Amino acid sequence: xxxxxxxxxxxxxxxxxxxxxxxxxxxxxxxxxxxxxxxxxxxxxxxxxxxxxxxxxxxxxxxxxxxxxxxxxxxxxxxxxxxxxxxxxxxxxxxxxxxxxxxxxxxxxxxxxxxxxxxxxxxxxxxxxxxxxxxxxxxxxxxxxxxxxxxxxxxxxxxxxxxxxxxxxxxxxxxxxxxxxxxxxxxxxxxxxxxxxxxxxxxxxxxxxxxxxxxxxxxxxxxxxxxxxxxxxxxxxxxxxxxxxxxxxxxxxxxxxxxxxxxxxxxxxxxxxxxxxxxxxxxxxxxxxxxxxxxxxxxxxxxxxxxxxxxxxxxxxxxxxxxxxxxxxxxxxxxxxxxxxxxxxxxxxxxxxxxxxxxxxxxxxxxxxxxxxxxxxxxxxxxxxxxxxxxxxxxxxxxxxxxxxxxxxxxxxxxxxxxxxxxxxxxxxxxxxxxxxxxxxxxxxxxxxxxxxxxxxxxxxxxxxxxxxxxxxxxxxxxxxxxxxxxxxxxxxxxxx
Length: 497
What we know:
The protein has helices at 11-22, 65-72, 105-115, 120-136, 138-141, 149-156, 160-167, 171-176, 193-205, 215-227, 270-275, 284-292, 382-402, 418-425, 467-483, 485-493, and strands at 3-7, 26-30, 42-45, 48-51, 57-58, 81-83, 90-94, 97-101, 207-210, 231-233, 238-243, 248-253, 258-260, 263-266, 298-306, 317-321, 340-345, 357-364, 410-416, 456-458. It is an alpha/beta fold. The strands form 5 sheets. It has a 7-stranded mixed sheet. A 5-stranded parallel sheet has the order 10-2-1-14-20.
């Protein structure tokens, strides 16, 4: 039985672990922290639960793409979902108005046409394009070997705003259609339209929150791995992927333990992976290229615990913008921050009446907290705490304008910065979604799942795209190197989802 060592217990690492364990591999997942999950982690303070990364998912209704993937990973019966409002799962507040995204093609078009009646035909064209691009990817549609390479390539090389300006003739509607861009940290003239299309298609089919938090997904995946004889070990930080002249022979942890391996898969950020490899098989030019790839912006979060029965549960995500556009919120100064934010509630039970906790998330560049880099969580000093408190005050003040009375409903709150993300996930620069796609760089900003070391592979949000579907698609790509894509697809189709 071939031994596979997987570095990192985020969604990418754990889903690769399940896929390979189900198919006869001896799997060991090594996690540096005390808690599994990566961006699936949740945390508790004074009995209140908070979500850190995977705030909601799409395409999870029966028979839809994520539902089928969860059946294949044998976790569908072990996680509970609570559906967001199909009549408005996303609400965009822009220029004094609010716009709702409705689930389903016809519902979405009809609702948007009530705001922009003269754009109905263009909305039909827009949705045709979303479905065309999403459907052209065999991975996203789970139709093995039916991808349309020409469509894939075209919309990976054209920016979101470039395509929208061609399809939508009302500038305000074009802005509303990118109102949820914090979900993927899109940048003007850079982010490919294909990224937008995959996200819109994924969530427009259906949208859900995990009841009790997304760490239930990490726990369920771990149990699947264990059922197939694998293991997931915490507090095992890998310091080196050990290689001979031709391939990797295993990994070594910081406490000197050696884990032999026939295959090594890294679910960490590619820059962290390269730091573990001291081998001539990885050329300096490749290291330099990976180190030069831009990262998505970081985030500042305010985690709020509400007073009991004070805040009605918000069955949708709320995006607020202080300016007249969702674009360029990552470009700010002391006087203009925050330009926008995403506000969500935690789902502690299926369709709760009142929210117990919630989060406000806004962009923050690493340079804002650079001077505290190298310090440790909880021990960064009084000036850092004062900085966070001032930012939290600004963000809460901004939310209060859209949600009057919200500040009075907060019992206590906590904060995090890009430094927190860096410490807990290892993502470069504390970026929210790792490596940034940029149409101007083409393939130069893509990281391959294969490395120059024949038995070392990569997985996770940096390898395909982020979000639950993006990471699971990347899992299929990575594991296809060992199992073949046909075998995985056949397993997915036969898994009962």
